[in-house]
HotDog ACOT-type domain-containing protein
Amino acid sequence: MHLGSRAVAVRRLCPQLEVLRQRFVECAGNQLESGHCSGTMADVAKKIREHVGVEGGYHAIPKSRDGLLKFQPKRNELPNRSMKDSHTTANVLLESDALMRERFVYGLGLLRMGRIMEELDLLAVWICHRHIFPPLLPKGVPLPYTFVTLLVDHAHFLVEKFKPDVDVSLSGHVSWTGNSSMEITAYVRQSGLVLAKAIFMIAARNATNSRPAPVNPLVPADELEDCIYKEALERHKRRTEKLARLESKRQPTMEEEQIMYEVFTRTKGIEGPSDTATLPADCRWMSEWQRSTLLHPFPQNRNEANTIFGGFIIRGAIETSYITACLYCGDYSVIRFISDITFTHQIPVHSYMKLRAYVVYTHDNYIQLMTVVIAINGNNFTEFHCNTLHLTYICKHKVPEILPRSYHEALWYLSGRRHFQRFLTSINRDMEGSGSSSAGDD
């Protein structure tokens, strides 16, 4: 009732996603290009290790980087950088490499979005390496920095079916900088067509990952970069406002209170006993639609800071939510949107991970999920919250409505509704003026 008009507009757009060469619109349709290519994603991983001086292979006690602390530059020693300084592309060779293709596809032949996000996170870290330029660093000395993913602002997927046998091109650049943090805008392309976009926030830390480290200021070099920078400033402003009012403590609005009351009267009634509840037709209880899994990360899943790589965590959460969405709708589902992935704790390499996906909101053929990542310490087996992901999936047919059974679940229901509204707003903004995309950077 409250989202009907927007949902109709989204449904009308869906057929266009199959027949038009859609693209994200940024600054009158222009996207940044530099012509720089970093090779394959395997090359990127190798370059990162070489750049920070990390030895290959796993060592239970990593080589100390304390000696690099004396090379940490001061902020006033770092020159300005432009977006083109950090811009690069890297390729995932699905067409010519059968073994690589095997790693990136589901049994149905669909491309694994969890794998794509994992690779994008790695590329975002490499883009930070390209942005940082300490001119006083002696030649041959490794970069005295560590880069940690703070959050993923959002990731948007435009095309329902990625082609499993066509090379994927990943590209991106720094789009905003703070004192010790950087926003990275990253894209996924196939055959020149933009299929996905993600916004990462990366923190710069010193060589031992014990303190923040300064980053080169970003100064736009031309009108296009200035336009992109202004968009990034708006995102930064919205993120700052969100921090001031945590979603978990956000009080329902009057409209949301009315929605909660309507759900209550549908399931309990205003005259029936307070301890009974009736499930309306074609509905399901939220409490009965959660699925969980346990993962054991291994050293191959670590980053240069010897903690579990953020991209691996995102991949595990996406794949758990994908399974949950498919079970809920009784068919395969397709991810459309991810929002507000915030990493609250780093996970030591000897830990375990518990992932739990909840269906928290539904509308027509859309499923909104909340996936919670819990880390389990491998020494004392204590648990601590790592992050929460909010994901939007689409099915081929209308799905049963999910309903809360308690006040706590009602708050999750409202949170899911807010994230679904953000998805609709993003669709309206990103699809405006869509047309054919160029070949891009390849």
